[in-house]
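Design review, sub-item: ligand-bound model
Attendees: FS, YL, KQ
YL presented the inputs for the zinc ion complex:
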Amino acid sequence: MPRKLTAKKLLAKFPKLEHKAGFLTDLACPKCGNADRTVKIDCKVICKLDEHETQPDGDYEWDGKSYCECRECHHYATVKDFTFKGLDDLIAEAQDSQQPEGVCDDGSIAK
Ligand SMILES: [Zn+2]
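KQ shared the predicted structure:
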C-alpha cells in the first residue's frame, strides 16, 4: 500500500492549487489536483416540493463518508479521501512566500 497522500505531498504534486475562501476547506482531488477544487458531493438536504419545483429548504449535510467526485477528472471516493488536513494553510503560506513585495510609486515597500 502506498503511503497516504498528505497535504504537503499533494501541494508538491500540484503546485497550482489555490487557496479558496469558503466552507470547502482543505479539500482537493487526490488524483488530478483540480486547481479549481470543484467537486460533487452526495448531500442530504430537506427540500420543499410542489407540482412545479423542488427547492432546498435547509442546510446541505454531508460527512467524511459521503460520496465525493472531482468535477475535472471524475475521480471519486469519499469526502475524507478528498480532505487534506492543513492544505489551505500550506497553500496560503506558499502563496505568501511567492508574492514579491509590493513597491509603491514613490519607491517605498508596501506592507
Ligand atoms: Zn480530479
